[in-house]
Amino acid sequence: MKRILKWLLGILVAMIIITNLPILNKNFMLTFDGKGHFKYSNSNASFTYLESLSFKNGFLTDWSINRFIEEMQPSIENQEVYRLYKINPLCFWRWHYYIFISRHYKYKSWEEIEPNRVPYDSVNMWQDF
After folding, report:
1. Per-residue pLDDT for 74 more than 80?
2. pTM score
3. Residues facing 127 on adjacent strands
4. Where, by residue number, does the polypeptide cross the bilayer (predicted)?
5. What CA–CA distance (Å, rounded) separates 57 from 60?
6. Residue 68 is assigned to a structural domain of this protein
7. Which of 63, 68, 94, 92 is nearest to 79 (CA)?
């Protein structure tokens, strides 16, 4: 019984490590979560970002947020970007993403943001949705 338990624990630890390796992590998140799970927005949705998880695109960075602030000059309360998804610790394949990306952004639900939303403009490079 102890041997089986150790074996199962070893497999679980190996799965957690493998699914969170930087090279493989995006592929696992894309497979398990699909596109459109990781969304970000400021308070009035003049900046919205949808994490594509594709090989060529990087993750959301401060550079793109600062660029938005420089170009659009939003009010102070609209300069902070929020994540629109809750952190679920049971989804172990997301732990790498949570530790390196998600923890930098506070959570705010889309239901709180949507009433204050500026109109969506499909040609606006700062609005993905």
Report:
1. yes
2. 0.86
3. 48
4. 7-24
5. 9
6. yes
7. 68
pLDDT band at 19 (very low <50, low <70, confident <90, very high): very high
Query: Please, what is the angle between helix 22-33 and helix 2-19, to 10°?
Result: 100
Write down the mean pLDDT value for the chain: 92
Contacts of 77 (CB under 8 A, 6+ apart): 43
C-alpha 29, offset from chain centre: 10
Distance CA 98, CA 38 (A): 11
| Cα 38 to Cα 97: distance, rounded to the nearest angstrom | 10
Q: Measured in whole angstroms, how far is the alpha carbon of residue 55 from the centre of its chain?
A: 15
Domain membership flag for residue 123: no
Work out how many domains the chain is built from and give that number.
1
Q: What is the CA radius of gyration of the chain?
A: 18
Residue 56's pLDDT is: 72
